[in-house]
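Many introductory courses stop at the sequence. We go one step further.
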Amino acid sequence: MQNVYDVLRERGFIEQVSDEDKVREILSKPITCYIGFDPTADSFHVGSLVPIMALIQIQRHGHRVIALLGGGTAMVGDPTDRTEMRQLVSREEIDSFARDLKSQLERFIDFSEGKALMLNNADWLYPLNYIEFLRDIGRHFSVNRMLAAETYRQRLETGLNFIEFNYMLLQSYDYLFLYRNYGCTLQMGGNDQWGNILAGADLIRRVEGGEAEALTFPLLTTADGTKMGKTEKGAVWLDAGRTSPYDYYQYWINTDDRDVEHFLSLFTLLPMDEVRRLSAKGGADLRVAKEVLAFEATRINHGEEEAEKARTASRALFSGEGVGDDSAVPTYEIERKRFEEGIPAFILFSETGIVKTRGAARRLITQGGAYVSGRRLESFDERITLDDLKDGFILLRAGKKKYLRVRPSGKGSSSSG
């Protein structure tokens, strides 16, 4: 079997590595490695997919992976890539977030029969005695070296809180704990974690005389320069309750042409020969590659059935054949009696969120880019009524790519029969 290091390198996962030859060597036989995830929200977003997909690739090549939930480190807050201190949240909220993230990770990683481990650093960080920790661990850290790290150097300009200054020590201790108790010899993470990961490897060398390595992934932006997973609607979440499978599918199928090959490499499990074959298509044929990307990414996150529904609905909408599977298209409910009175189009489009503001809705309609149940709107204040219903809902379209159905809910007025 191909060394997973070469797989990760070929697919674009690797940004920095402590010792390339050494890492390739240790990955030539089964090892234990880990990635940490601080539970700062109740769902991962698309920006978290690179480390998750890396864990999938590594596990597929016979290695034991540890997904470490940072129930302890989240109490402190990672200062990385922040201009100000993170808002501290309660232990109860962090524990709740951790449970949510655990259930999401189980969709990607096989934790059966010890093939992978899900751990929470709260289990060993909460019981620490502060004085002992400072004597045993803190003495190995040079303040001068810590301040030279990119993470802390950036924050010094805006103010670095002492509690955040401890984050590097705690993350390093995680690596030491996993090295001692699970034989973990490789920590991975986003490239913004490079300094923290190296500090952990150095701590293992100083305390245990052991060898441990570091590997980081690139921090992705799309070809147009936007942060990965960010849209005008906000973050694209892995939780179906936050981002529907249909909207998730749409995020991927609307990938910039320049990103298609890169995203197929990172976010699907297709062989690289297939990735290159699909990406070689140009013009209209590139739509095929985008559909494969959208389907595979949605299937990995939401399962085969939801991916099929999203693909069916997307094909039907963009071909003009109708909606297809009702359950796949995002739905917004509005009281039926409001449609009996009629809702001005620009208010309907902004209220449902298909456009951000009433002003944007006015401009869209005036420019001829708004449709209701297949017909183009002519006036921004045209009233949308129950006459616009088709198959039980009103289909809104903004531009070429945004669709939303609106379903009247509740009973109408007595005069309506």
